[in-house]
Amino acid sequence: MTRHVVIVGAGPAGLGAAAGALRAGARVTLVDAAEHPGGQYHRMLPDAYAAEHPGRLHHGWHGFERLRDHVLGHPRCDWWPESTVWSIERDEPAAPHVHVLRGEIDAAGRERRVLRPDALVLAPGAHDRVLPFPGWELPGVHTAGAAQALAKGERLVVGDRVLIAGSGPFLLPVAASLLEAGSTVRAVLEANPASTVARGWIRRPWELASETGKATELAEYAGLLARHRVPYRTGRAVIEARGDGRVEEAVTARLRPDWSVVPGSEQTVAVDALCVTHGFSPQLELPVAAGCRLRDGAFAEVDDDQRTTAPAVYAAGEITGIAGAQSARTEGLLAGWIAGGGAPDAPGLAGTRRRRDRARAFAARLAAAHPIGPQWRGWLRPGTIVCRCEDTTYGDLCRVAEDPAQGAARAVKLSTRAGLGPCQARICGPTVADLLSGRVDAANPHHRPITQPIRLAELANPPSDTHDPKESAR
């Protein structure tokens, strides 16, 4: 009997998983909340733009097009765009049931569906992590990922004079996207000093021999910054944003390796937009809902076949480790093949595993080169907003956490409302957990039985059970 594999997420990992499952002979239902596949890495322009060169701001566009066309055009693949997974219901020892809302996000009349697959591959990706600082709630302060999404997906720039700051190599493609879209980039600031970055990347240098593609990409970004005369500075971060009604200037400062501010090193830069990211937070709501165990509380734990600890559930991409699009695609290919019933010892799979293992080593190197220093708390003031949805301040959080009657993270949350707003702690959750570490009992910030918003009317409507994806296709 042909296996049915449901794949959540159509970025590099999800498309790779679909290709692997189809190669193994399975039927595939590929689910994504976006209108088009590609994820953040290959965010596509709307069809109405009729762009002549849709891949202008993308690396590896032609390879993506081939993979996309192969997957979406395959007779055993059912593509569900604009479909949101709002809950996962465990059905051990079988694969979980996947509850889906089909229809444009926030539109009325979305339809509830239930998928009961033989195997489930989770590839939901990640989103920017931004550490709070005074003024980060001002209009004009964006996550770097949001700025890049607007440039790639709409050809819109967030400002004419933009400063990009934070940590990690993602700062470079964001700068490239904004430059290509017409912005003036004042500077790119890496918070970690050059010694920390170099130590992380140069350790065991022979392992870098297999990463020539990434080296070429880095050289391209460096050349682009040089042509536009954009300075790249290490050991400096944005510690405050100022403005009357919107951001007008950013205060930067030199940092020590622990991210404490060097006194007297502050500088002010005039900007009309500020893009900040301090790495990525994997979207772990679905793996946690499926019963997957987490590694170090930060990533889904997987074995050599990308199998999680939950029955018939596989994971690929950023939820297993942040290592880039090529790594995500490789993990997806392996996860899809095994989930689709492919033999673990199939010819050629050893090479896929070697590429995956090299990508995991790259992820460890990336984390060592661009860590988050523990003293970033020193940027905060009592009035600094830490939860933007509920306007919870750092002072509020500290005051409640120091109350001996508040013995658990849940009590602090209820008292301060941190994490109870529309984003449901997706943005502030890791930050609040860090700030409360050692003060109150920790809670899992990724536990959400309802992982995406759903209207009561939608919840009241009976779902349509879906066994065969072809029978339920629109």
CATH class of the largest domain: Alpha Beta
Task: Indicate the mean pLDDT.
Answer: 87
User: Helix content range of the residues, please?
Assistant: 25-40%
The CATH topology label of the largest domain is FAD/NAD(P)-binding domain
Gap between N and C termini, in Å? 24 Å
Strand content: 15-25%
CATH architecture of the largest domain: 3-Layer(bba) Sandwich
Overall morphology: globular
Tell me the quaternary state: single chain
Structural class label = alpha/beta
Q: What do you see in this structure?
A:
There is one protein chain. The chain has 474 residues and is an alpha/beta fold. The chain folds into three domains: 4-126 and 281-367 and 465-470, FAD/NAD(P)-binding domain, CATH 3.50.50.60; 130-278, FAD/NAD(P)-binding domain (3-Layer(bba) Sandwich), CATH 3.50.50.60; 374-436, no CATH class. Helix content is 31%, strand content 22%. It is built from 14 helices and 23 strands. It has helices spanning 12-23, 61-72, 144-154, 171-181, 194-202, 212-227, 285-289, 325-339, 349-369, 394-401, 409-416, 429-436, 456-460, 469-472; strands spanning 4-8, 27-31, 77-80, 83-91, 94-102, 111-115, 119-122, 126-128, 141-143, 161-167, 184-190, 232-234, 236-242, 249-254, 267-270, 273-278, 280-282, 294-295, 299-300, 313-315, 385-387, 392-393, 464-466. Strands 3-2-1-7-20 form a five-stranded parallel β-sheet, covered by helices on one side. A five-stranded parallel β-sheet has the order 9-16-10-11-12. A four-stranded mixed β-sheet has the order 4-5-6-23. A hairpin with a 4-residue loop joins strand 21 (385-387) and strand 22 (392-393). Helix 5 (194-202) packs antiparallel against helix 9 (349-369) and helix 8 (325-339) packs across helix 9. It is globular, with a radius of gyration of 22 Å. Residues 469-474 have low confidence and may be disordered.
